[in-house]
Design goal:
By secondary structure, the protein is α/β, with parallel strands linked by helices. Helices cover 50% and strands 12% of the residues. The N and C termini lie far apart (50 Å). The structure holds fe (ii) ion. Fe (ii) ion (FE2) binds next to helix 8 and helix 12.
Length: 394
C-alpha cells in the first residue's frame, strides 16, 4: 500500500472517477463514462423515455445508405415520432469523415435550432456527430479552436446508434475527423454520447469485407489498449473480454466465412467492440492505429484492416519491450502466439501496397512526439516506426 491511502470517489451520472495518485498499487481501475448504454434486439424502439432526454429538435447524421438499409434510421424515426420530437437529416457523411462536411452539417443544425445530434452508423457518422455537436454549439469556430479544445460552449447532446461492430465510438470521448487529407483526433469528456444504442441486428446485413474490417478494428483497439503504458487493471479486463469474444468468432469465420455468422456471433462482435471502446477510453491506441491512419490516407485501405496489419509487428515489439507482459497477454487470452496472430491475419486480406522510401521519410515527423507512439511499452522511436513500415510494406 502506498502510504495512507485516501480513496476519493466522485459518483457522476453513470461512472466513477477515482484519484489515480491515491490508489493502492494493486487496485487500479480508473474509469469515467457518462454514457447510458442500452443494448439488445429492438432497443432503439423500446427506449422512448430515454430518447426524450436528447431534446425536442434534433439533427440526425448518417452515411449515404447504410443507416436506412439496415433499418436503424427507420427505428430512430419511429421512436422520435412517437415522442413528438422533430428532426432533420444530414445524410452525406462518407468514410473517413471530412471536417468540411461536419461544418456544413453543423450549420444545418444551428439553422434548425437543434438541441441534440443523433449519429447513426459506423465510426464515421458517429465521430462526425460528435464533431458536429461541438461545431453547432460554437458557430464560427475555427479548426484550430476545435482541435485545441478551445470551446466556449458545451457541445449539443449526442445520441449514437451503432450499425457496425468495431469502432466502439458509441462509448468513447474520441472523434477522428479528416482535415487536409489527414486523420486527426480530438478527445474531450464533453463528446461522450448521452445515449448509446447497440442492436447487433443492424450488423446482420453488413457485407463480408466490412464485417472483417470492423471486427479487426475492435481487435486492434483491445490489443493496443492492453499493451498501452496507460492501461490499468480495469481497462485490461475490458480488452481481454473483447479479444476472447472476437477470437471465438474469428475461428468460425476462418473456417466458413462471414456468411456463416449467426445473430449470436454478430452480438459477440458487437459486445467486443464495446469492450474495445471502454478499454481505449482509458488508454487511447498505440502505433498500429497511428500508422494505420497513413495506410488509409495514402492507399484507401479500410481503417480496421489498415490498423490490424500492424498487430503481428506490435506483438513482436512488445515481446522485445515488455516480455513479461507479452507472456501474460497470451495467458489472459488463452491462446498461443501463432494461433491468435494467424486468426487476425486470416481476417485481414494481405496488405498489398508498397511504400516508397520518400513516403517513409515524409511520414517520419508524424511519429515524433506522437501520443500513441509514446504510450507504447519501452521507448519507441520514430526510426523504429520507419523500420516497421519497411518490413510490412515491402
Ligand atoms: Fe479504430
Amino acid at each position: 500500500m502506498k502510504g495512507a491511502v485516501e480513496l476519493q470517489r466522485k459518483i457522476y451520472e453513470g461512472g466513477i472517477v477515482a484519484c489515480e495518485a491515491e490508489m493502492e498499487e494493486k487496485m487500479s481501475m480508473n474509469h469515467y463514462m457518462p454514457t447510458r448504454l442500452i443494448t439488445g434486439k429492438g432497443c432503439v424502439k423500446k427506449s422512448l423515455e430515454e430518447w426524450k432526454r436528447i431534446g425536442d429538435r434534433l439533427l440526425i447524421v448518417t452515411g449515404r445508405n447504410s443507416a436506412r438499409a439496415c433499418g436503424a434510421l427507420e427505428d430512430v424515426e419511429e421512436a422520435l415520432k412517437a415522442n413528438g420530437q422533430k428532426w432533420t437529416l444530414y445524410d452525406k457523411i462518407g468514410q473517413n469523415p471530412k471536417l468540411e462536411d461536419c461544418m456544413e452539417a453543423a450549420k444545418m443544425a444551428t439553422e434548425w435550432g437543434a438541441e441534440g445530434v443523433v449519429g447513426i452508423g459506423g465510426g464515421s457518422p458517429l465521430d462526425a456527430a460528435k464533431c458536429i455537436a461541438v461545431l453547432a454549439a460554437n458557430p464560427g469556430m475555427t479548426r484550430e479552436q476545435l482541435y485545441g479544445l478551445a470551446w466556449k460552449n458545451s457541445p449539443l447532446k449526442i445520441a449514437a446508434v451503432g450499425t457496425t461492430a468495431g469502432t466502439g465510438s458509441e462509448v468513447t470521448k474520441v472523434s477522428v475527423i479528416t482535415t487536409d487529407g489527414r486523420k486527426k483526433s480530438f478527445h474531450h469528456d464533453g463528446i461522450y454520447p448521452l445515449l448509446a444504442f447497440g442492436d447487433a441486428g443492424y450488423t446482420m446485413t453488413l457485407p463480408e469485407q466490412f464485417t472483417r474490417s470492423t471486427a479487426v478494428d475492435a481487435m486492434a483497439h483491445c490489443v493496443e489498449s492492453y499493451f498501452s503504458k496507460a492501461a490499468d487493471g480495469l481497462s485490461r479486463n475490458f480488452a481481454v473480454a473483447g479479444i476472447c469474444l472476437l477470437l471465438e468468432v474469428f475461428k468460425k469465420i476462418q473456417k466458413s466465412g462471414c456468411a456463416a455468422m449467426t445473430y449470436e456471433d454478430r452480438e459477440k462482435c458487437y459486445e467486443a467492440s464495446i469492450y474495445g471502446g471502454l478499454a481505449i477510453n482509458k488508454t487511447g491506441t498505440c502505433f498500429p492505429h497511428t500508422m494505420g491512419y497513413l495506410l488509409t490516407e495514402e492507399y484507401g485501405i479500410p481503417h480496421g484492416t489498415a490498423c490490424a496489419v500492424f498487430l503481428p509487428e506490435f506483438y513482436a515489439y512488445n515481446q522485445m519491450a515488455a516480455p513479461g507482459l507479452a507472456e501474460k497477454f497470451l495467458q489472459d487470452i488463452h491462446a498461443g502466439k501463432e494461433e491468435w496472430i494467424s486468426l487476425v491475419e486470416s481476417m485481414t486480406p494481405e496488405c498489398r501496397v508498397s511504400i516508397p522510401e520518400e513516403k517513409i521519410a515524409k511520414a517520419h515527423g508524424r511519429w515524433e512526439n506522437n501520443n500513441s507512439i509514446m504510450k507504447c511499452q519501452g521507448e519507441m522511436t520514430a526510426d523504429m516506426a520507419d523500420d516497421i513500415l519497411r518490413r510490412i510494406l515491402r
